[in-house]
């Protein structure tokens, strides 16, 4: 455990029963093969670059960098050094999202033609003690929450070809609702509502509404409409909950996710709702993939494509023009049914099957 602020590293090391040391000492330790980068977004590329230069694999919090150009430089550096980059989010590995992927891959709703996706709320100022950065350039709902949502769509439908978007700002300032600065106002200098249209290389068109200007709504996170039916996909900010499917206009059927790993609630939100939140399993997959010599799922190519799309949403909202997405990526390998981290281990899976 290391932090530019030694007291922060010390506190976390004590809480989790691990050693704390300086950033330099951690990077110089030959026994460490992979470093998880949990710094703030503006520091992601610089810190990941130092980890790669030290000859270690890196798993970064999202986004990979604050710009796609920064992320591309990082990927080139990792290739030159022969190390891997992994990147959050890993929520698409959750039971609800893998069960949805299996339904689509099995053709249950046919070819997906269109759909909608939404992440709508009043934003972070009610609960976050220092919410300033959410409302400045580099913040906003698309860059902050978009990675979870767009990554899951790419997992389900493949890469995105083009984007069109508009944006708006619902409020000129926000009032902090908790902590020592409660009552203080924060200026809003970046859009807080986006309406986007994502066109996939496979042909599907999905509308994407992302806003921090909404008090209440009745939308589900993701609805997909296919030639054979419709699918409701739970919130990709978490790992669990039940997808629902309708076959050729029939009643909604609950989709059993219990055969898949990482769907069990393990955290209670401020609202009292119990959710499955198994963040960091992407790192477990990456470590297992390195040992087995296979591709890891939450990989830099996927993260870069998603970052390209998020940047394009902002660019299209500014210019009013459609923006083509130059990058592409493979859909990550689906996870087999099974329980816990063993689903990542090919050797364990083969032994179970025989
Ligand atoms: N807080 C959450 O609920 C949450 C959820 C999902 C993802 N994330 C992501 O996790 C990351 C961290 O978020 P957070 O809320 O923990 O932030 P934080 O500000 O609480 O912690 C970040 C830490 O990084 C350290 N740091 C900054 N620059 C550094 C550098 N150059 N070298 C070493 N250490 C450095 C800071 O001192 C700080 O202790 C962000 O990318 C965020 O998007 C956070």
Automatic annotation (TrEMBL):
It holds the Pfam family GFO_IDH_MocA_C3. Residues 3-85 form the Gfo/Idh/MocA-like oxidoreductase N-terminal domain. Keywords: Oxidoreductase. InterPro entries: Gfo/Idh/MocA-like_OxRdtase_N, Gfo/Idh/MocA_oxidrdct_glycsds, GFO_IDH_MocA-like_dom, NAD(P)-bd_dom_sf. Residues 98-231 form the GFO/IDH/MocA-like oxidoreductase domain. PANTHER family: BCDNA.GH03377. This is Dehydrogenase. It comes from Labrys wisconsinensis.
